[in-house]
Structure prediction request, 80 residues.
Amino acid sequence: MDTSSLAEAIQRPEVQRELLGTYRGAFSLGVTSSPEDREKPALLLRLEGAVPDEFPSHIAVDGEKVPVVVKGGFKAPKPQ
Prediction:
Protein backbone atom coordinates (compact mmCIF):
# COMPACT_ATOMS: atom_id res chain seq x y z
CA MET A 1 0.00 0.00 0.00
CA ASP A 2 1.39 3.41 -0.89
CA THR A 3 1.19 6.59 1.17
CA SER A 4 -1.64 8.23 -0.79
CA SER A 5 -3.81 5.08 -0.65
CA LEU A 6 -3.27 4.83 3.09
CA ALA A 7 -4.07 8.55 3.52
CA GLU A 8 -7.39 7.96 1.73
CA ALA A 9 -8.11 4.79 3.73
CA ILE A 10 -7.79 6.52 7.12
CA GLN A 11 -10.72 8.77 6.20
CA ARG A 12 -13.06 5.76 6.20
CA PRO A 13 -15.06 5.26 9.43
CA GLU A 14 -14.52 1.48 9.48
CA VAL A 15 -10.72 1.92 9.50
CA GLN A 16 -10.94 4.47 12.31
CA ARG A 17 -13.28 2.19 14.31
CA GLU A 18 -10.92 -0.76 13.96
CA LEU A 19 -7.98 1.33 15.09
CA LEU A 20 -9.63 3.30 17.91
CA GLY A 21 -11.83 0.58 19.39
CA THR A 22 -13.46 1.97 22.54
CA TYR A 23 -11.16 5.03 22.84
CA ARG A 24 -13.28 8.22 23.10
CA GLY A 25 -10.74 11.00 23.64
CA ALA A 26 -9.30 13.50 21.17
CA PHE A 27 -6.95 12.10 18.56
CA SER A 28 -5.05 12.90 15.40
CA LEU A 29 -4.54 10.29 12.69
CA GLY A 30 -2.06 10.57 9.86
CA VAL A 31 0.51 8.72 7.79
CA THR A 32 4.23 8.40 8.58
CA SER A 33 7.11 6.08 7.74
CA SER A 34 7.15 2.61 9.25
CA PRO A 35 9.62 2.24 12.11
CA GLU A 36 10.40 -1.25 10.77
CA ASP A 37 10.98 -0.23 7.13
CA ARG A 38 11.35 3.49 6.35
CA GLU A 39 10.29 2.84 2.74
CA LYS A 40 6.81 1.69 3.78
CA PRO A 41 4.02 3.85 5.22
CA ALA A 42 2.52 3.44 8.69
CA LEU A 43 -0.34 5.03 10.58
CA LEU A 44 0.53 7.70 13.14
CA LEU A 45 -2.05 7.93 15.91
CA ARG A 46 -1.67 10.68 18.49
CA LEU A 47 -3.80 10.49 21.64
CA GLU A 48 -4.59 12.73 24.60
CA GLY A 49 -2.56 11.92 27.70
CA ALA A 50 -0.77 8.61 28.15
CA VAL A 51 -1.06 5.79 25.64
CA PRO A 52 -3.26 2.90 26.83
CA ASP A 53 -2.04 -0.64 26.19
CA GLU A 54 -5.14 -1.50 24.13
CA PHE A 55 -3.96 -0.11 20.79
CA PRO A 56 -2.76 -2.52 18.11
CA SER A 57 0.76 -2.32 16.67
CA HIS A 58 -0.64 -3.30 13.24
CA ILE A 59 -4.06 -3.29 11.56
CA ALA A 60 -5.32 -4.68 8.26
CA VAL A 61 -6.20 -2.02 5.70
CA ASP A 62 -7.54 -3.24 2.37
CA GLY A 63 -6.05 -6.66 3.04
CA GLU A 64 -2.56 -5.39 3.90
CA LYS A 65 -0.91 -5.38 7.33
CA VAL A 66 -0.07 -1.75 8.23
CA PRO A 67 2.09 -0.76 11.21
CA VAL A 68 0.62 1.65 13.76
CA VAL A 69 2.77 4.17 15.66
CA VAL A 70 0.94 5.47 18.76
CA LYS A 71 2.10 8.56 20.66
CA GLY A 72 0.58 10.34 23.64
CA GLY A 73 0.43 13.99 24.60
CA PHE A 74 -1.90 15.19 21.82
CA LYS A 75 -3.86 18.35 22.60
CA ALA A 76 -7.01 19.02 20.61
CA PRO A 77 -7.08 22.46 18.98
CA LYS A 78 -9.38 24.96 20.65
CA PRO A 79 -11.61 27.23 18.58
CA GLN A 80 -10.68 30.89 18.69
Notes: The domain at 3-71 is CATH 3.30.70 (Alpha-Beta Plaits). Helices lie at 3-9, 13-20. The first strand starts at residue 27 and ends at 33.
